[in-house]
Amino acid sequence: MKILVAISNVPDTTTKIQFTDGDTKFNAAGVTFVINPYDEWYALVKALELKEANLAEKVTLIHVGLADSEATIRKGFALGADDAVRIDADAPDAYFVAEQIAAYAKANGYDLILAGKETISFNGSSVGGMIAGIMDLPYISLATKMDVVGNKIVAEHDIDGGSRVVECELPVVVSCSKGMAEQRIPNMRGIMAARTKPLVVISSNGSSALTTVKSYTLNPGRTSCKMISEDNMDELVNLLHTEAKVI
Predict the structure, then answer these.
(1) Which of 70, 114, 151, 225 is at 20 to 30 A from 28, Cα to Cα?
(2) Helix, strand, coil % over all residues of the chain, rounded to 5
(3) Count of domains for the chain
(4) Cα 180 vs. chain centroid, distance in angstroms?
């Protein structure tokens, strides 16, 4: 079984977000970028577990991005991925990313395509489903457990009000959520090996984005908390009607 793991290059969670060019572009100056945690901790580590259990012959990373993202890809090598493909393009939206990954995956015959449930930068949770739709493959979203049984995937995933166990034949696309695997830390051997693992760079297939950014706005953050005594129910009801806001 060949596994393809889609990874995204995202700002570290401690980054102070700023925008430039009239709030139309993210200001990447001085920002440390990392593998999207959902891609790393759950999708990639699960793929490595399947390889270690002799259920997969190779784990390949795929990323749509420019040359400055290659340090992030090498982190995936340090964890244990065998090789990687970087599609050389500045990804404008989720559809563009999905189109690039789907084209490569279709041309190279992968049995299992894994991705994190969403990126921490956009929280769109859409790339995995788009890949499956473009390739006309089954899609399991928000998977928390997964086993390979013969030529089938048996997975448990979150649904409204609980979870559900599903089964489908390979090939399949799965987005991975908390519970799928446990975070790993690269060891020295993995870090040294990452320097020589093959990273192939290819051009994008020329597809266009479906969306454009008009502007970005920072979250206003938390406001002050108004405390109401437990015996003042009338005041609480009044404030809920007059001051409370739905975000």
Answers:
(1) 114
(2) 30, 30, 45
(3) 1
(4) 13
